[in-house]
C-alpha cells in the first residue's frame, strides 16, 4: 500500500506493548490512513491509554475508541456504529482489522458476562464476531496470523515471578547480540513495525497464513485440519449468535 493511499485500519488492544509500536509506525509511515485504536478502557486515567493518546496526538486521522471484547453486545454496537460511519463517508472503507487484544488467566478461570471463559472470548470469539460484521465482502480478502515472538520488554511480563522479570531485563540488554542467532527474541518495537508491514505493506499484499514476525512459517497441523476448522467455525457462529443478515454472507 503506497503511503498516499487512504483507508481505515482498526486495531484492538491498542494500548498494549506491541500495539503502541504499531500505532507509532503506522501514523508515521502511512500518514494518510485513518486509525481506530480500540481499547477496553478509553479513559486517560489509564496510563497505557494516556501513552497511546500521546502517540496519536501528532495525527489528525487517528482516534481512540472504546471496545470491550469481554462483551459480545458491545462488540456488536461498535461494529454497527463503525459500519454506519463508513456508509456515511465519515471514515474511509476498512482496509485491515488487526486482532491484537488478548488476555490471560494464570491462576483460575474467569468468565465473561456472556458466560464464556474470558481468554477464549477476548482472544478469539469477540474478534470472530467483529471481523464478520465489518467485512464488506468475504472474497478477495486474506487472513494473516503473526507470532510477535518473545517480546522481552512486553508489559505482559509484569505478572511473571521476579526472577523471570529479571532474566528478561537482562535479555533486553543482549538483543543487539541475540539478533545474530535468533529473531524469536525481540523488542516490542520490532514486532510492532513488522505488524504494520504485514497489515498494510506492499510486500505482503495478498499474503496469507502464519508468520513469525515478518518471516513466513508453516502452520501447525491442527490449523490445516479442515474438519476441525469447520467445527470451530460453526461453534463460534452459534456462540456469537450471528445471523446471516448481519454479515456479508447474506450477499
UniProtKB/TrEMBL annotation:
Residues 7-105 form the Ketoreductase (KR) domain. InterPro entries: Ergosterol_Biosynth_ERG27, NAD(P)-bd_dom_sf, PKS_KR. GO terms for cellular component: endoplasmic reticulum membrane; lipid droplet; mitochondrial outer membrane. It comes from the Eukaryota. GO terms for molecular function: 3-beta-hydroxysteroid 3-dehydrogenase (NADP+) activity. This is Ketoreductase (KR) domain-containing protein. It comes from Fusarium austroamericanum.
Amino acid at each position: 500500500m503506497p503511503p498516499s493511499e487512504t483507508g481505515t485500519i482498526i486495531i484492538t488492544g491498542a494500548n498494549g506493548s506491541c500495539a503502541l509500536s504499531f500505532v507509532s509506525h503506522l501514523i508515521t509511515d502511512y500518514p494518510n490512513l485513518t486509525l481506530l485504536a480500540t481499547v477496553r478502557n478509553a479513559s486517560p486515567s489509564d496510563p497505557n491509554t494516556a501513552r497511546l493518546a500521546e502517540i496519536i496526538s501528532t495525527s489528525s486521522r487517528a482516534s481512540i475508541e472504546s471496545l470491550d471484547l469481554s462483551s459480545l453486545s458491545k462488540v456488536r454496537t461498535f461494529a454497527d456504529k463503525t459500519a454506519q460511519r463508513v456508509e456515511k463517508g465519515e471514515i474511509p472503507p476498512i482496509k485491515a482489522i488487526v486482532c491484537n487484544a488478548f488476555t490471560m488467566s494464570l491462576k483460575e478461570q474467569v468468565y465473561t458476562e456472556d458466560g464464556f471463559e474470558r481468554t477464549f472470548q477476548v482472544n478469539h470469539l469477540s474478534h470472530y464476531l467483529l471481523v464478520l460484521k465489518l467485512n464488506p465482502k468475504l472474497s478477495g480478502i486474506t487472513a494473516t496470523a503473526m507470532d510477535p515472538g518473545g517480546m522481552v520488554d512486553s508489559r505482559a511480563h509484569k505478572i511473571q515471578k521476579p526472577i523471570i522479570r529479571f532474566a528478561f531485563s537482562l535479555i533486553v540488554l543482549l538483543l543487539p547480540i541475540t539478533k545474530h542467532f535468533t529473531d524469536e527474541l525481540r523488542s516490542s518495537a520490532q514486532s510492532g513495525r513488522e505488524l504494520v508491514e504485514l497489515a498494510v505493506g506492499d510486500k505482503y499484499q495478498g499474503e496469507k497464513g502464519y508468520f513469525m514476525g515478518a518471516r513466513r512459517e508453516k502452520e501447525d497441523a491442527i490449523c490445516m485440519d479442515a474438519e476441525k476448522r469447520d467445527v470451530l467455525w460453526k461453534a463460534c457462529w452459534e456462540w456469537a449468535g450471528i445471523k446471516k443478515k448481519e454479515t456479508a454472507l447474506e450477499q
